[in-house]
What we know:
Layout: H1 30-39, H2 44-47, H3 52-55, H4 60-78, H5 81-88, H6 92-95, H7 97-100, H8 106-139, H9 145-165, H10 167-192, H11 211-228, H12 234-238, H13 248-276, H14 284-290, H15 296-325, H16 331-351, H17 355-383, H18 390-393, H19 413-428, H20 449-464
Helix pairs in contact: 1-10, 1-13, 4-11, 4-13, 8-9, 8-14, 8-15, 8-16, 8-17, 9-15, 9-16, 10-13, 10-15, 11-17, 15-16, 17-19, 17-20, 19-20
Amino acid sequence: xxxxxxxxxxxxxxxxxxxxxxxxxxxxxxxxxxxxxxxxxxxxxxxxxxxxxxxxxxxxxxxxxxxxxxxxxxxxxxxxxxxxxxxxxxxxxxxxxxxxxxxxxxxxxxxxxxxxxxxxxxxxxxxxxxxxxxxxxxxxxxxxxxxxxxxxxxxxxxxxxxxxxxxxxxxxxxxxxxxxxxxxxxxxxxxxxxxxxxxxxxxxxxxxxxxxxxxxxxxxxxxxxxxxxxxxxxxxxxxxxxxxxxxxxxxxxxxxxxxxxxxxxxxxxxxxxxxxxxxxxxxxxxxxxxxxxxxxxxxxxxxxxxxxxxxxxxxxxxxxxxxxxxxxxxxxxxxxxxxxxxxxxxxxxxxxxxxxxxxxxxxxxxxxxxxxxxxxxxxxxxxxxxxxxxxxxxxxxxxxxxxxxxxxxxxxxxxxxxxxxxxxxxxxxxxxxxxxxxxxxxxxxxxxxxxxxxxxxxxxxxxxxxxxxxxxxxxxxxxxxxxxxx
Length: 486
């Protein structure tokens, strides 16, 4: 994890792992964050979350309000995390070592790895269907298990190539994917408009028995889960923005705008097309079947390039997280390993699992344990006023000891306990088709696991750290120059 020369940061394969990015290589701009968040989300792996409210039995407008409310609420919590890596110059899991300890930050690395792993598998899974389906209708090619297996393999290989090249490749590719997919979705509204209806698409009623319980689940599973997927990813991009050139306000605004637009545009398209295609138990199959013949080629192109862009960004983040967990691995080697695991999950998702139940349970459970980590990391950011010692954050990566974030053998026990308490409360109050937490009885059966987990974590961390201030290095905080532009 030796920092690369400045020139290497501008071309070729990125060799930076979770080391501190030197300021000479921090040439990113806030607009680049918006571009990546837009481009990397313009794929069916994100669009499909707009289908979830329809599959839960909600009508169109309640489906829309649940997603909008959840997305805005999640953005308020998650967007400030971009400021942490802006100040530290490294990814978020490593940055969290300032609060959790240089070994305790492995909690964040594992959560980030699991989040990206699941979403990357989902992206390739849905993208494969968007490639096989149109090719079957257009050219009569097979649409069975062999066709899906080959398509998944091709998408996985292309995605990992993008991820290995790294930040610069993702930045450039995201711009074109964002532009092309926005045009595709605008045309798609016309393509499906004649079949659109606002009534429920399922005949079995609400998934949880009544409107409010189901709406609450949709708010978390389809809305809140979107921003929560970025609790680790945001730092991968904001670490390339120099705090000497751009203010925290501009990075925060860029992260917020990028998340809200990057999530709601594809998800609302997914909701619209789900009701137009009457997609009940499956999304991509009915979407392809209901598409006019002329729209199949644009749908195929999005299935290909949108999947590569989104999966590439997720695999890139996974590579960083594994690099943080196993320092001897280089980022490219870590990226190859996690891509193989993600591809395995894709095949399991197609041949073994019930997709809807697996996706819903996954996002709800990961939200329950990811929220406490985000709350504690932001508390730590506020307590140290955004001032970190970048060199001390890298102690674990250098396989050494000591530094101001060493705490107790590299762990801040108080932070770890607060995270465990918040996660336990979240897991005990979650509601999925596969698992129902016992605390649901205290919330009238409504899934408010996100709120309970956040509140329990905040209270526990505050009480546990009374009289125990977070270490702050004796250095001047970095301020942006007044003339920097987005």
